[in-house]
Amino acid sequence: MTDEGSRDRQDRQEKTGVLPWLDARLPVVSAFRREYVEYRTPRNLNGLWNFGAILTVVLLVMLATGIFLAIHYTPTAAGAFASIEAIERQVPSGWLLRSIHVTGASMFLAALYIHLFRGLYYGSYKAPREMLWLTGLVLLAMVMFTAFAGYVLPWGQMSYWGADVAGKAVDAIPGIGPWLEHFLQGGDAPGDVSLHRFFILHMVLAFAVLGVVGVHVAALHVTGSNNPLGIEPKGPRDTVPFHPYYTSKDALGLILFALLFAVVVFFLPNVVFEAENFRPANPLHTPADIEPEWYFLPFYGILQSVPSKFGGLLASVGAILVLFLVPWLDRSPIRSARFRPLYRVGMGVLVVCFILLGFVGRHHAQGGWMIAGRIAVVYYFAHFLVLLPLSARWERGVVLPESIAGGRGV
Amino acid sequence: MILRCVSVLAFAAPLADLSPAVAQAGPHDRAPHQAWSFEGPLGRFDLSAVQRGYAVYAQVCSACHGMKAMTYGDLTRMGLTMEQVGRIAATQQVPGGVDAQGDPVTRAATPADHFRDPFVNPQAAAAANNGVAPPDQSRLALVYPGGPDRIYAVLTGYRQPPAGYRPSHAGAVYNPYASDREIAMPPPLRDGQVVYTDGTPATTAQEARDVTTFLAWVAQPHLEARHRLGAQVVLYLLFLAVLAFLLKRRIWSDVH
Known about the structure:
Chain A: It is found in: Membrane. The complex is a heterodimer. By secondary structure, chain A is an all-alpha fold. Chain A has helices at about 1-15, 20-25, 30-35, 50-70, 80-90, 95-120, 130-150, 155-170, 175-185, 190-225, 240-265, 295-305, 310-330, 340-360, 370-390; strands spanning about 40, 240. Chain A has 15 helices and two strands. The longest helix of chain A has about 30 residues, at about 190-225. Helix content of chain A is about 65%, strand content about 0%. By secondary structure, chain B is mostly helical. Chain B has two domains: about 25-70 and about 115-160 and about 170-220, Cytochrome c-like domain (Cytochrome Bc1 Complex, Chain D, domain 2); about 220-255. Chain B is about 40% helix and about 5% strand. The two termini of chain B are about 20 Å apart. The chains are: A mainly alpha, B mainly alpha. The interface between A and B is large, with 57 and 49 residues.
């Protein structure tokens, strides 16, 4: 009798299942359903909205490959280069993990820049999404530090001399510069101590990025996504549930991105691997041409276009800091550049200037590149500090569509 | 739409511009292009040429050039068995710690050991070679400006110097393909210098070609696996992309 009775109770429990049991105590299941299944999303998001999902997946890939690389890596000036060679040659599939990690850094920054310029173009930084914008910019800065620290770790010629140039840039800060350089490097030149610090910085920042991504996504789910029209959804007709609509669209975007990723990893590795960095670091021999990775080139271009060393440093750091002010610099109530003809042209010029500055950085701002670089720097700052505050004045009589469903034109 | 086009172009352009820049240390003649089996996106190594190239390295180059990053076990990937590699390793003596009296001893190498360095340190290497230490060859085919074409050109390019040539330092010899048309390495190869076990005539050109192939293989040991895996991954992703596209279109059909 008692046996039968207990089995009955068990059966009743099995009917209710493990997930409802869990959900009653820790509502992860209903939260997931609310935020990733039923979550209402504007129906008109274009392909540029895929990059959020892409960035999340690339970050996870970077953390996974990075942990395996860290297991085999030796953070000492004497052992770092040899440990990378061992990963490439003796560790099974080490070459593949490292190639994915190195390519991933470039792909991550590329996707991040697209994500950033999309936010600028469609006014995704405007109320009520300021926190989303600010957390995103914090992520950009963190990812840049992480990428730089990671580039130093193989301790090849470019790693060493890149760290040296960065140290010299810090040294140019008046007053605290020399002290700060010494503090960061742990000596007068990059060495054992700096390598150890960069390794820890790289690992800590990578996981901190994951945390801030959590905050960034939480902020997104408070306000919901912006969309190409820049008007808020007014009713159920303007939105679709996240699943299956955007899960299927993100899946397609991810696969296409993975295809590009795979082509670089397997067929074009020298796009991301600098040959000079296969030479071990040699503090006595300066390479003929020190240049940062492509994703720092626009900022390197700004640094070199400005005549004074400290001024250049201020300008290149300011180029990122000014982005933090954008939600308050832009006085226009209209979000999407689609309805802002002047701003739209301005955005095009901004993208061109940003790329131009990359080439200026690559050519060390010599000759004609210097002039082009200075014009681009002036426009870059004028865009944010002059065009954005004033543009609202020329945007009279703009008629926005009634609703997303009514005024779609993707 | 405009932005999309601009952004695609924008991010593609700097990548295209970032192909490895050929930094030239000093003026030299342009190395003629050679046809190599490992070129191109589907390139692969001719393993018999790699093995012959190893013979050249072992009998000639290794007298002065190290190859620190390689272990003897890595040679299995050029088609040797573990026993053959073990026999090769056993012919080399490497530092083996200290004996009971505390004196350093040597032992026969094993497949797990790295290639033996010909000199104990860079200073000894430079002192034995007119002041110029012979570069390590682990990644030489990648880091040497001009790559395999130029390595081959240098190895086969020794000739009578022009009338006005004066060596800039003791031991320097004329070579039109080296930086400043001068190199510290005396001509390393000559006809019949190496004994090939497969009966290939050991001409200077053949030796140079084989050892260049070996150096390219050492510099990119996973090139062939990379290309093979890449083709599989790309085909798989293409197929998956078609499926994902069809799925997405079907799901969205009631929205558009």
